[in-house]
Amino acid sequence: MSLEENKAIIRKMVRAFNKKDLAVIDEFIAPDYVDHTNQLRGRENVRRFYTMVFKDFPDFHRTIEDIDRSIDNHSPGANSKVFSRIP
């Protein structure tokens, strides 16, 4: 897969998450996916995690600052309750 194709995937995922559209998980997340940071395994746990994120952070939004170097998460706004033990 080319660099431009990879960038297009990242852009599509960010746009979908900004719309709170979790259908993109089935398209781009492998069934045996492991997220070591959030301790998630598999698509359904990723879906549950983002459902919780969207509920607790109703104004959740990601912005791509520099796709050639990294994706920076900017989630301005207030959370509606304690999230993962973080008030």
Written description of the protein model:
Helices cover 40% and strands 5% of the residues. The chain contains 3 helices and 2 strands. The protein has helices at residues 3-18, 24-28, 43-56, and strands spanning 34-35, 40-41. The chain has a two-stranded antiparallel sheet. The model is unreliable at 70-74 (pLDDT under 50).
State the gist of this model.
This protein is mainly α and 87 residues long. The protein is built from 3 helices and 2 strands.
Secondary structure elements and their pairing?
Layout: H1 3-18, H2 24-28, E1 34-35, E2 40-41, H3 43-56
Antiparallel strand pairs: 1-2
Keywords:
87 residues; mainly alpha; Nuclear Transport Factor 2, Chain: A; two-stranded antiparallel sheet; 3 helices; 2 strands; 5% strand
Unreliable spans are 70-74
State the oligomer.
single chain
- CA radius of gyration is 14 Å
CATH topology: Nuclear Transport Factor 2, Chain: A
Strand percentage = under 5%
SS class? mainly alpha
Order of helices and strands: HHEEH
CATH architecture level-2 label? Roll
Q: Largest beta sheet, briefly?
A: 2 strands, antiparallel
Helix content: 40-55%
Output the CATH class name.
Answer: Alpha Beta
Mean pLDDT: 83
Distance from first to last alpha carbon: 40 Å
